[in-house]
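Narrative of accomplishments. A recurring question from our advisory board has been how the design workflow behaves on a single, concrete structure rather than in aggregate. To address it, we present the structure tokens for one chain from the evaluation set, followed by the sequence designed for it. No filtering or post-editing was applied between the two.
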């Protein structure tokens, strides 16, 4: 047995010796290949087709550990945890919904401290809130709270950096660890890392931040906002650059970029590589390193040539004449050129990995921007060349819509932020993604009215439906009924004869109670009397009694002739106007026109009732419009603007026209001729029944200019269109017409 074990041991030893002497070369070869494979992995990417594709990658940079000034992943995680201690916050866990139940969505801004300076941008944000319909001066009514401490710039090196915020907010009795608070921020972190460090603990507050990393973004809680400059307008804003008559099928440049190049630090790798795609023909990619105090100390061999080429092109000219604009990351993920590209209808090509795009919770950016990858820069030119021209135009149109709807002013950015939060409070009554991404936009499609597309005047075509086939006559009464021949009684009888009239509502705005039902005329349609509050804006209140899509707004003094020998006898002229309105349900369609004009001497807007070839206002004393505009007038406009109409003559007419024009970007429509009309000023205005004509128009001009100031621009759109029935006959003799035979029997 022992001998057998001895032989087994000797055989095992002999096999190892043979393997060592005869297999040494094979083992060496295996070791060599494994080492070579490891080197190949470290040197990735190592292109096998080097003759076909030039390698622009710096292999030494890939083999190194990267920029030593950048934090390691462990340090990044530690920094993120220190900033977002409540990183799992959601609306359900870190927001008190009960504060919003009694008084609705109201926002309170902390009182401003005299010794605490505010940046121009943060002052605009607070002003937007305080002048909006959301604002309340009572913190007990508030659902959301905004700090008066400027938190926009949290760069320690900035002169606008506010110190000791933690100590200040802890002393606020309403802070409550940030619960139901909203914090705005544009710049976070500092050189060299530019992390998301705000320098204070935000607690359970919602963060509305520019340049938001997706890793730090708390879905359904935080909000990503765009980076905007201090010169961004408070309200209104400039229009987009794409007009109906300026669409070029092919612009001079396909893809452009002109901006800074960072030689060191975060963001330098992306911009340093942009020169590779420049061809000097249809792709222009220009960078300069001439910025900052110490740029000459760090400049490389390309700087001098880049600086010379940089001055050969004008930035605004490139924006105007390019189809696509590269929007690379800077020191932070976002940049000003993102909004600049949107306004210029230059489709943004985003090279900013990890950026949570502004309002991505609501906006579908796949229809307006190209999201690229920083590591695949060389593929961008071929990718954009493959996009079909029709899709390019669709992208450009969507950039204009998004710019005008959400980004052209600080007001719109702030209001969009608040409306996104408001939608979270009542998900079952929130806006659909379609409402956010289709005209006229989420800010003008109020979910309190409806969440069904067919209820709005803008979406009948997309929804494949039509407005209801009946209308509600809404008559405003501002004088007592002293005789059976009162104009309002004749008006009720005339309108009730229309085949499309479903009901008649009378808004009784006289100081005495309305007459009993026996004194009102008998009609074939229901007649309802509504007691008003004696204010001009009452006529545009969203009364539940209005059941039809169309509203025929009438003043009691309007004269609609019932004579068979008139131009268009009632109910024919009312029926015709209603048929026209059903073809244009988003517009105001009526009989009485006015127009506005710019007075260069007075440098203000003027208002006129003279008969001209242009109109921009149709008086609601005799006009059709969609009932949704009652909700928009009452809920969208701030209280101060609605109060304005109670003190100025005919201001409610102008305000409704301005509102509809701001929503639709379209003029009203006038139907048929109507020459017999006199402006009668309601008796409740300033306690007088009539005013001098000069003072009357002066008030209307004051109203028009105050509205233009509030909107930030003049929304009214002029038109030369008037629609008449085919068989319309005017009062001019056939013998006096140039083509008299056309009307002779």
């Amino acid at each position: 047995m022992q001998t057998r074990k001895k032989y087994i041991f000797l055989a095992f030893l002999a096999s190892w010796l043979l393997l060592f002497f005869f297999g040494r070369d094979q083992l060496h070869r295996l070791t060599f290949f494994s080492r070579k494979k490891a080197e190949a992995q470290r040197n990735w990417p190592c292109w096998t087709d080097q003759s076909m594709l030039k390698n622009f990658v710096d292999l030494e940079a890939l083999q190194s550990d990267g920029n030593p000034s950048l934090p390691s992943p462990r340090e990044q995680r530690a920094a993120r945890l220190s900033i977002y201690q409540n990183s799992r916050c959601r609306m359900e866990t870190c927001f008190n919904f009960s504060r919003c139940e009694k008084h609705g969505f109201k926002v309170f801004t902390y009182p401003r401290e005299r010794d605490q300076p505010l940046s121009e941008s943060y002052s605009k944000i607070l002003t937007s809130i305080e002048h909006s319909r959301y604002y309340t001066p009572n913190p007990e009514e508030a659902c959301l709270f905004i700090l008066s401490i400027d938190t926009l710039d949290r760069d320690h090196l900035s002169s606008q950096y506010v110190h000791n915020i933690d100590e200040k907010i802890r002393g606020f009795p309403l802070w409550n660890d940030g619960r139901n608070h909203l914090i705005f921020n544009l710049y976070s972190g500092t050189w060299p890392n530019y992390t998301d460090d705000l320098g204070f603990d935000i607690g359970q507050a919602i963060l509305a931040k520019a340049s938001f990393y997706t890793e730090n973004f708390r879905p359904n809680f935080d909000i990503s906002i765009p980076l905007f400059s201090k010169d961004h307008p408070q309200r209104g804003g400039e229009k987009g650059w794409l007009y109906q008559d300026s669409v070029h099928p092919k612009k001079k440049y396909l893809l452009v970029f002109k901006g800074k190049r960072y030689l060191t630090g975060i963001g330098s790798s992306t911009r340093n590589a942009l020169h590779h795609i420049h061809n000097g023909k249809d792709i222009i990619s220009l960078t300069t390193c001439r910025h900052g105090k110490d740029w000459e100390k760090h400049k490389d061999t390309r700087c001098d040539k880049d600086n010379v080429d940089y001055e050969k092109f004008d930035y605004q000219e490139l924006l105007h004449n390019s189809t696509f604009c590269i929007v690379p990351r800077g020191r932070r993920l976002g940049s000003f050129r993102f909004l600049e590209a949107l306004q210029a209808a230059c489709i943004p090509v985003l090279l900013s990995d990890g950026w949570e795009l502004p309002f991505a919770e609501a906006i579908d950016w796949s229809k307006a921007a190209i999201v690229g990858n920083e590591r695949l820069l060389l593929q961008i030119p071929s990718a954009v060349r493959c996009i079909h021209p029709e899709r390019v135009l669709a992208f450009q149109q969507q950039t204009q819509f998004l710019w005008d709807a959400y980004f052209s002013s600080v007001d719109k950015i702030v209001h969009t932020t608040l409306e996104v939060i408001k939608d979270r409070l009542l998900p079952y009554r929130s806006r659909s993604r379609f409402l956010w991404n289709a005209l006229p936009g989420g800010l003008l499609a109020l979910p309190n009215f409806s969440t069904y597309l067919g209820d709005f005047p803008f979406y009948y075509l997309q929804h494949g439906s039509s407005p209801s086939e009946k209308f509600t006559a809404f008559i405003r009464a501002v004088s007592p009924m002293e005789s059976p021949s009162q104009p309002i009684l004749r008006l009720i009888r005339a309108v009730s004869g229309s085949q499309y009239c479903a009901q008649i509502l009378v808004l009784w705005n006289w100081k005495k109670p309305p007459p009993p039902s026996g004194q009102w005329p008998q009609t074939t349609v229901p007649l309802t009397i509504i007691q008003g509050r004696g204010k001009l804006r009452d006529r545009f209140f969203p009364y539940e009694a209005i059941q039809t899509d169309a509203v025929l707004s009438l003043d009691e003094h309007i004269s609609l002739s019932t004579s068979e020998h008139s131009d268009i006898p009632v109910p024919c002229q009312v029926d015709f106007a209603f048929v026209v309105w059903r073809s244009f349900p988003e517009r105001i369609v009526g009989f009485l026109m006015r127009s506005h004009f710019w007075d260069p001497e007075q440098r203000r807007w003027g208002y006129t009732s003279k008969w001209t070839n242009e109109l921009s206002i149709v008086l609601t004393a005799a006009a059709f419009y969609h009932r949704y505009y009652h909700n928009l007038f009452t809920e969208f406009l701030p209280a101060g603007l609605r109060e304005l109409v109670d003190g100025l003559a005919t201001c409610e007419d102008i305000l409704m026209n301005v509102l509809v024009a701001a929503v639709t970007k379209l003029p009203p429509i006038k139907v048929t001729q109507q020459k017999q009309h006199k402006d009668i000023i309601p008796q409740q205005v300033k306690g007088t029944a009539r005013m001098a004509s000069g003072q009357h128009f002066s008030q209307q001009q004051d109203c028009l200019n105050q509205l233009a100031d509030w909107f930030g621009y003049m929304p009214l759109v002029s038109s030369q269109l008037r629609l008449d029935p085919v068989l319309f006959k005017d009062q001019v003799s056939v013998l006096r017409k140039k083509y008299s035979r056309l009307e002779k029997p």
